[in-house]
Amino acid sequence: MPVVTKITTQKNSGERYNVYLDYGKGEEFGFGVDENVLIKYDLKKGRELDEFELTEIQYADDEKKAYNLAITYLSYRMRSEKEVHDYLKKKEINSTIIQQVIQKLVSHRYLNDEEFAKAFVLTQMNTTSKGPNVIQRELKEKGISDTIITLSLCEYPEEQQIQTAVKLIEKLKGKYKKLSQVMMKQKMEQALAVKGYSFSIIQEAFQRTNTEKESDEAWEALQYQGMKVHRRFSKYEGWEYQQKMKQALYRKGFSIDQIQSFLDSMEEE
């Protein structure tokens, strides 16, 4: 059986040690080990180790290294159990060790999916414009159970959702100002849905916001879209030109009266 001949501190870590062994042919490097493992297995000069003990020590050290990796990963922000699992898996940690590390982290309260989900919802609510449906999807991707997701989303009250949606509508007005009134509202509704807001929240937000264009804004949008369509169909003349212009502008959400006004203005020029 090998005998421990020397134990030295590793240069880059005061908590890890190099253990040297003699298998009967002289001293050679045996393995590196964490301080806690060193103490747990009473490693010291002159101690004999059988193959079972060597395997057990190596496993314990691998587990300790994985635990330390997880602690460092958690030091930057809160994580879900799945996030830690996936991180350790990327580091090519043994799956059994990963489960043991996660159990230990949970027992030490370094991991708690309920607390994580609640904090995640509050952070997204206060720092982003995401609606609950998007937040729900992101929590699902992080491995949070449906029950915990439902509970955590209670932190995002409907009134807060409506207020955030109203702010989004105000921002989107500028983005879609060159569209017709109808198309602008459709685009804003789609944008809010993509952001994760429900139909009822979107409708309530619109009721609290004035999205009706002023007459000059409506005319400016009509001119902008009308000239784009005109450039496409300028090669046509007479009735065919009129029909193509009317059909295209109608699809863009302008009324028959608005379209006729634009066409009349084009004829005057």
Automatic annotation (TrEMBL):
Main subcellular location: cytoplasm
Record domain RecX third three-helical: where: 159-205, 216-263
Residue span(s) of domain RecX first three-helical: 66-105
Domain RecX second three-helical: start-end pairs: 112-150
Example of a GO biological process term: regulation of DNA repair
Cellular component per GO, a single term: cytoplasm
Compartments in which it is found: Cytoplasm
Keywords, ordered alphabetically: Cytoplasm
Pfam families recorded: RecX_HTH1 (PF21982), RecX_HTH2 (PF02631), RecX_HTH3 (PF21981)
Lineage top rank: taxon: Bacteria
NCBIfam families, per the entry: PRK14135.1
Family statement: Belongs to the RecX family.
Annotated function: Modulates RecA activity.
Protein name, as recorded: Regulatory protein RecX
Gene label: recX
